[in-house]
Write a structure and sequence with these properties.
4-stranded antiparallel beta sheet, mainly beta, 0% helix, 54% strand
Length: 482
């Protein structure tokens, strides 16, 4: 089955081969190269709130039991659980491991931060002073220092050697969402107040404030640049020396929002609000797309080269490899895609949408290109179907505007699909039309409607040949036998 493998919180393993992902109440370990979940941990009835891990260990903090569970995630089954312990008397909201994988920091809704010795299983530090829920914890990459942020909007720097607070960094007026360290003595913080703050860690002073005019949800370093991701759905790379944006993506065709950004090999890994994972190269170009959530699958058809085409309650069409479930998306519609059909003889795919249009796609050399748009319906286009015979290609569509339309390329030339024209339009039913199918010999068309009837039409003239009555409810599917 095509199931969601990832969604929600996300963490990259240090070897950058695996992702630790929230998926509903469970935590899944996903192999990036295949997009497949290789392990699954947790309890459906005890949701994991936050996670952290390394190449061997995975920690999950749970809502109902208030436990932190330690797993050897490369093991399967019951052997994977190493131990469970109650770190706080309230839910744990943030965790972090240091670079040596010997210390675990936990922060909770009681404002208290604790640091744990992983190997010897005891608490080494307890830090008080934050106000509200602890929302962010991160160790310094090379020093025994822990950075935290809570509802008080401060970034606190705790020194583990002296067990004391050494800096109280005040510069944000909204929650801090991410920290990066360009050097041992410089830290940059980003938040939902649409600014980047640069801090001198030697004295705790704010050296620069850079307005980025975007709610920052994620930040990462790539090729010496600071890359930001947020509610505009566009990655931007900033040169801190000049405080200028020197590289920026083109705005996406459809609105999206990023919720996380992670440095990944020579590029970046970004997570969208609808739980898709985009892998970018250093030029900020998408190299791979992992789908975390399919929502309701409205329509599915066989596509080309062993793929499936899915309409999934979204403006995008998802092309899924039936062996690996690796997924690409086709963007073109501005409304939810309601129906898709493929013509395998001519490598064509048709999609219809709530935006009242039909888009035709041509497949070649491993990719799809949009070659035509069929417009004329005045309401959501609920169904499309291709003809079957190779010598006279046509497409039919039905809509909530109660009409049936037949479309044909000019002179039947598949290469000139941009000249697709409407041959005829017929008022077909008294209520919304839900489905349409062409007979195997291309002579007949059948439509089904909420008016409880199915009707058979002549494909050459659009004349009504028969009405099929007997259903007590609306008809959602009608097919010819082979």
């Amino acid at each position: 089955g095509i199931n969601a493998e990832y969604g929600g919180g996300l963490l990259l393993s240090p070897d950058q081969e695996f992702l630790f992902c929230h998926c509903e109440n469970l935590v899944k370990v996903v192999e990036i190269s295949t997009g497949q979940a290789v392990q699954c941990f947790g309890n459906e009835e005890d949701a994991a709130i936050t996670i952290c891990g390394d190449n061997e260990l995975l920690f999950t903090a749970h809502r109902a039991s208030l436990l932190i569970k330690q797993w050897k995630w490369r093991n399967a089954g019951e052997e994977a659980l190493v131990r469970s312990f109650k770190a706080h008397p309230v839910p744990v909201t943030s965790m972090s491991m240091d670079s040596t994988s010997s210390l675990l920091a936990s922060g909770a809704t009681d404002s208290i931060i604790r640091v744990w010795d992983i190997e010897n299983n005891y608490c080494t530090h307890q830090f008080k002073g934050s106000k509200g829920v602890v929302t962010l914890l991160q160790f310094h990459p090379s020093k025994l220092q822990l950075f935290s942020s809570a509802d008080d909007l401060l970034v606190k720097v705790w020194d583990l050697e002296s067990s004391s607070l050494i800096h109280n960094l005040k510069g944000h007026v909204s929650p801090v969402t991410s920290l990066v360290f360009p050097s041992d003595t410089i830290m940059i913080s980003g938040g939902r107040d649409k600014v980047l703050c640069t801090w001198e860690l030697t004295n705790g002073k704010l050296s620069e404030t850079l307005p980025v005019f975007e709610v920052i949800e994620g930040m990462a370093l790539c090729e010496g640049l600071v890359v930001t991701a947020g509610d505009k759905g566009v990655l931007r790379a900033w040169d801190k020396a000049s405080n200028k944006c020197i590289k920026q993506q083109e705005p996406p065709a459809l609105k999206r929002e990023f919720v996380n950004l992670i440095s990944y090999k020579c590029g970046l890994l970004a997570v969208t609000f609808d739980q898709n994972i985009l892998i970018y190269n250093k030029e900020l170009e998408v190299e791979k797309n992992l789908i975390g959530y399919n929502d309701e699958i409205i329509d599915i058809k066989p596509a080309f080269d062993g793929h499936l085409a899915l309409a999934t309650n979204s403006e995008q069409i998802r092309i899924v490899n039936s062996d690996t479930l690796a997924t690409n998306v086709l963007s073109g519609h501005s409304g939810t895609v309601l129906s898709i059909d493929t013509n395998l003889e001519h490598n064509l795919l048709a999609s219809s949408s709530k935006d009242c249009s039909v888009i035709l796609w041509k497949y070649g050399e491993g990719s799809y290109s949009q070659v035509a748009s069929c417009t004329g319906h005045t309401s959501a286009v609920s169904g499309v179907a291709w003809s079957h015979l190779p010598d006279n290609i046509f497409l039919v569509s039905v809509s909530c505007d109660l009409t049936l339309k037949l479309w044909q390329p000019a002179s039947g030339n598949v290469r000139k699909l941009h000249k697709t024209k409407c041959v005829y339009t017929v008022k077909a039913h008294e209520k919304d039309i839900n489905c349409v199918t062409v007979s195997p010999n291309d002579k007949f068309i059948i439509t089904g409607s909420l008016d409880k009837t199915a009707k058979v039409w002549s494909s050459d003239k659009g004349s009504l040949l028969g009405v099929l009555r007997g259903h007590k409810r609306g008809i959602w599917c009608a097919r010819f036998s082979l």
